[in-house]
Amino acid sequence: MSTHPSASPVRTHAKRWLRRAALAAGLLVIPTAVLAYADLLPESLDLLGFDLTEAPDLPHVARQIAIGAPLRIIAFGSSSTEGIGASSPANAYPAQLQTDLRAQLHGVDVTVINRGIGGEHVDDMLARLDRDVIRPEPQLVIWQTGSNDPLRGVSLEHFRAATLDAVRRIRDAGIDVVLMEPQWCPKLEATPGANRFRDAVREIGDALDVPVIRRADLMHGWVRDGKLTTKQLFASDGLHMADRGYALLASAAAESILRDAGPVHVTEAVAE
Question: How many angstroms separate the Cα of 216 from the Cα of each of 213, 220, 222, 248?
Fold first, then answer.
């Protein structure tokens, strides 16, 4: 599993074997015309002995890319998914992510649907989980969460339990999940306990073997590396990112998705 930028989650041997066995089983039912999906696997593929190396963290995304089928992604979250602080919806991170992925996945019809609503905490988002995430049947959901919960008095224990349950529901529906942690900003830094929600998102990712986009670390890194100044990073409210920050976030999300989908190659397009 990949996280941003320096996490080292430990996986058990059993988890790895089950993931590889599941991928192998899935390959057995894919038509011969799309056996290029084997590019997801390493040098050797011994189906009898399951002598496989690491399976992709995003197998449903990997399959769509490998067979050239449409890839549908839902960006789920609160204001920084909706794009508050951006100069227009086209400059919110989901729209820019769609552009970035289309540029890198030639031949794959990538659609990123923005399902962010400003101000929502975990219970607000769970109330629309079926409607906005599961029912549309995407291959991937990027769930940005944990920002409003400390601001609105949600208990850490409730946030953790509710998020764990929701991630399991999404994956049980056959959808890959990437979590996005809260942003770094002065308002959250001044909120007691806010960093515990960031850490909880990381812990949930480790526990469920789900990639986590470490947005707080990324934002610090952009400023440290001179990619933009703190003033350029934030909108005038000091809470949300501005256009340049959202562009960098979209680029980082695209990189994370492609890395966690594995070394796949697009074959002939498949109508769905």
Answer: 9, 6, 10, 13
Please name each of the domains of the chain with its CATH number. Answer: 13-261 (3.40.50.1110)
Cα separation, 246 vs 82, whole angstroms = 11
Sign, CA torsion 87/130/100/256: positive
pLDDT in tens, 231-267: 999 998 888 999 999 999 999 999 999 999 987 655 5
Question: Where are any strands of DSSP class E within 173-247?
Answer: 176-180, 212-213
Closest by Cα among 63, 98, 6 to 267: 63
Rg, C-alpha atoms of the chain: 19
Q: For residue 225, give every residue at least 6 positions away whose Cβ sits within 8 Å of its Cβ, in sequence order, or none.
A: none
The pTM for the full model equals: 0.79
CA dist., res. 241 & res. 61, Å (int): 27
Buried b (16+ CB within 10 A) or exposed e, 188-204: beeeeebeebbebbbbb
Give the whole-angstrom CA distance, residue 58 versus residue 140: 8
